[in-house]
Structures are given as C-alpha cells and as structure tokens.
C-alpha cells in the first residue's frame, strides 16, 4: 500500500482529556522564537493539525503536541500545542500527558525518583518534574508561566440571564472565570450543553466589550476559554470547575492553565497567599493541585508563578496515514 503521509503518535489522557503526541511525520519547523515556529507550522502545515485533530481521526475536544527543537538553551524540547480550535500558547493537561508519554515510551530516559524535563512553549520556558517509579510516571508537576488577572468583575449581560460578573485572567491562555451559581448552572456532565451555550455567549459579550491583549505576547489576543466554578463534590477538592474550550467543548481535566488563572484570581483577591495551595476538581472527578510559588510581573500586571501537579495515563500508540485520494484527508467537524 502507498500512503502520502504517515504520522506516528503516542496517545494519552489527563483526567479523561486526550493528548496526541506526534513523534514523527512533521517536517522541521523554522523560527527564532517558539511563536515563530507556531506561525511557520500554521502557515504551511495546518492541514496536519486538522487531519489529526478533526474527525475521523480525532473529535471535538482532541488536542495534541507537535515536537520541535527548542529555542532556549535551558530547554530540552520544544512543543507546539494544537487542538480542534487552533493553537494554544500553553496547555497544562497536554504538558502532563506529553511528559508522561515521552518518559513511559522511552523517548526520554527515566530517572527515578524524579525525571526533570524543561519544555520550550510558545508562552515561555516551563520546567517539569515527573515522579517515576519502576518506569511508570505517577505524577507530573510543572511550573507554569506567570499568571495574572487582566481585569476583575467585568459585567456582561447574557440573553436569558441577569447581569453577571466575569474575572478575566491569564494562566497560559485567557480565561473568563464565572461562578456557576450566578448562571444557575450545575457542574455535571448532564449540563454540559447548557454550559457550552452560556460560555459561547459570555465569550462573545466580553470580547465585544473590551480588548484583551497579552502585554508581552501581542499575537495573543481575545478571551478564548470560559471557566465555570463552584462547590466541589470530591472529598479532596477545594473547588470544582467546568472549562469550555473553543470552539465549544468541555475540558475533561481540571485544566492546568485554567487552574493557574484561578490561582491568580484567588491571590489577587487576597484569598490565597504565596506558598498556599488548593485542589481543583473537573467534571470527571479528576484532580489537579495548584501551589503559588512566587510573585512575578508581566508587563504592568502583578503576577504569580504557579506549580500544577496532576497525572496522565498512556493508552496507546498509533500510526495515522493519509491516502492521496482521500477526499476527507484533512479532516472535518460535525456539531
């Protein structure tokens, strides 16, 4: 059989949210910065993203990692985060899944009890540490890029609701954090479609009402994710969330960048100090732990560096092929 393109991947999930780590099939990516590499990939190889993230090889909340050479000397490997909705400056669940997959597959030699891997991401250098026992990764911690509150208490009107308050914060992506109680929303899988509809309306209202631009990454613009939060159901959790990712899917994990954004809001409100921590629960019952490491500064915004800890499971290795006469080789999406 003759195939036009062949991609080898490792499949993992973090709290139920998938990560497809692409080991081979992607050409060498050029660029002086990781953002340059994102644009190089986007302009020339976006069809790889759609082919591996969209149906029939993926689905509405598929996400993955494209590996590349790092641009910072202290980093071991560069990573571009891709998903159905496009490209992410940073992704927490993918970081945990990627590090787990690379160590357990032998791509990175395991060192027990801790294996350190430094990632070069589009949003900055991210050190990670994997707890390893007998070749298995028990957990991964990563020191995320600095998180900050962009604007607190943004008032928006959503059709069918009274005026609600949204905290806009950065944790590697821009999040709108919304109390589920003020929306009459239950944080359960049965209410996922309601959450998606609300999130799309809130995101539109916020983006139409204000300009959101990262002060140090001017290419990163606009609110992309909505994070509903409320009381936990897991006995070990402090807060529960449901994160809606673009264009309209539910994150199965507690969301690493969303958890960092939540930590920044709690710190900004004086509800969590440096050194303090909390446990975040997702709709699947998965848990991430967040700890504030130290204050930081991003442009004019006071910020904090947050350590996120979670775990992932490898569930397969895949070889994807693209036949030249496949009319759906670049993928498709249905609601």
Automatic annotation (TrEMBL):
Enzyme class: isomerase
Top-level taxon of the source organism: Bacteria
Alphabetized InterPro entries for the sequence: Pro_racemase_fam
Cited Gene3D superfamilies: Diaminopimelate Epimerase, Chain A, domain 1
Known EC number: 5.1.1.4
Catalytically driven reaction(s): L-proline = D-proline
A molecular function GO annotation: proline racemase activity
Pfam families per the UniProt record, alphabetical: Pro_racemase (PF05544)
Family stated for the protein in its record: Belongs to the proline racemase family.
Name this protein carries in UniProt: Proline racemase
């Amino acid at each position: 059989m003759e195939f036009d393109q062949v991609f080898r991947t490792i499949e993992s999930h973090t709290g139920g949210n998938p990560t497809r780590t692409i080991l081979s099939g992607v050409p060498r990516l050029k660029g002086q910065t990781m953002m340059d590499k994102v644009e190089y990939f986007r302009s020339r190889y976006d069809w790889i993203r759609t082919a591996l993230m969209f149906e029939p090889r993926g689905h509405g909340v598929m996400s993955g990692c494209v590996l590349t050479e790092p641009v910072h000397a202290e980093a071991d490997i560069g990573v571009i985060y891709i998903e159905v909705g496009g490209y992410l400056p940073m992704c927490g669940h993918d970081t945990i899944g990627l590090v787990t997959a690379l160590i357990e597959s032998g791509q990175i030699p395991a060192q027990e009890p801790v294996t350190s891997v430094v990632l070069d991401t589009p949003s900055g250098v991210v050190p990670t540490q994997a707890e390893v026992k007998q070749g298995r990764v028990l957990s991964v911690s990563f020191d995320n890029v600095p998180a900050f509150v962009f604007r607190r208490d943004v008032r928006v009107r959503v059709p069918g609701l009274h005026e609600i308050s949204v905290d806009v914060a950065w944790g590697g992506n821009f999040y709108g954090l919304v109390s589920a109680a003020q929306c009459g929303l239950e944080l359960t899988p049965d209410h996922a479609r309601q959450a998606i509809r609300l999130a799309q309306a809130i995101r539109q209202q916020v983006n139409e009402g204000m300009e959101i631009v990262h002060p140090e990454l001017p290419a990163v613009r606009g609110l992309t994710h909505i994070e509903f939060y409320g009381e936990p159901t897991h006995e070990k959790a402090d807060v529960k969330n449901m994160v809606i990712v673009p264009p309209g899917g539910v994150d199965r994990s507690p969301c690493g960048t969303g958890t960092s954004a939540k930590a920044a809001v709690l710190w900004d409100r004086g509800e969590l100090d440096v050194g303090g921590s909390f446990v975040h629960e997702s709709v699947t019952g998965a848990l991430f732990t967040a700890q504030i490491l130290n204050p930081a500064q991003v442009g004019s915004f006071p910020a904090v560096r947050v350590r996120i800890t979670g775990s992932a499971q490898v569930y397969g290795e895949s070889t994807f092929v693209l036949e030249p006469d496949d009319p759906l080789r670049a993928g498709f999406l249905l609601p």
